[in-house]
Amino acid sequence: MAHEYDTVERNLERVGMTLARQPTEAGVEWRLTLPHGELVEAWEPGTAGLVPPPEIARLIESALAGRDLVPNPPPRELPAEFVRFEKLTRLLVRTSRPPRAGSGAA
Predict the structure, then answer these.
(1) Residue 100: its pLDDT value, please?
(2) From the centroid of its chain, how far is CA 13?
(3) Is the pLDDT of residue 48 over 80?
(4) Which H or E run includes 31?
(5) H or E stretch covering 93
(6) Which of 18, 34, 36, 64 has the fewest CB atoms in 10 Å of its CB?
(7) CA-closest candidate to residue 19, choices 9, 29, 27, 45
(8) What share of the chain is helix, strand, coil (3-state, %, to 5)?
């Protein structure tokens, strides 16, 4: 099972990156997805390593801004306007009805 890693403040998410750690029987595979979808993978022997390998660490260093990585960081809080918009959208979708047959709607 892969575990997502980010800072508590979700610094990687803010810059459009995702980092996952996948333990295997022989080691750990790290996967970093960059903002435009590029994928950087690195494998380490053993399963004890909780720090990304150097080739990935150097790519995320500036985004981390000195903060520690944590597994499965807490969800990001959404702006109040977005939460209100989502609630209204759900309400509109739930209360809308399809057009009646023969009403001229295609």
Answers:
(1) 62
(2) 6
(3) no
(4) strand 27-33
(5) helix 80-95
(6) 36
(7) 29
(8) 30, 25, 45
**8 A C-beta contact, residue 32 and residue 98:** no
Amino acid letter, 57: A
For residue 30, which amino acid is it? W
50-65 pLDDT, tens digit per residue, is 789 999 999 999 999 9
Spell out the domain ranges in the chain: 3-95
Are the C-beta atoms of 21 and 30 separated by less than 8 Å? yes
Contact 8, 65 (CB under 8 A): no
Q: Are 20 and 12 in contact (CB under 8 A)?
A: no
Q: In this structure, are residues 18 and 32 in contact, taking their beta carbons and an 8 Å threshold?
A: yes
